Amino acid sequence: YQRRVRAIGTMLVYTSFFAGTMLLPTLLKDELEEQTVFYSMAVHCLTAALTSPAAMFSIKHFGAKISMITGSLCCVFFYLSVMFPATWALFVAQSVFGFGLALVRPASLKFLVKNSTPNAMGIDSGIHWGVFMSSMIWGNAVVYVLTHGNYYDTRTRIVVYAVLCGLNLLGTVMYVILRTPPRAGQDERQPLLDGMKEDLNPVTFANLVKDTFSLVILRQTLWLVPSMLAAGFYFTMYCVEIPTMIGSHIALFGIMIGVGELLGSLILGRIISAFGYVLVTIIAGCLAIISLLLTCTSLPKNTEDTVLNSSGMAMLVAIALAYGVSDAGNNLALNSIIGRLFDDRSEVIFCVLSCVMNLAAMTWYFVYTVVAWETIIVATGLAVFASMLGIFIVVRPK
Question: Do the beta carbons of residue 222 and residue 355 sit within 8 Å?
Answer without folding.
Answer: no
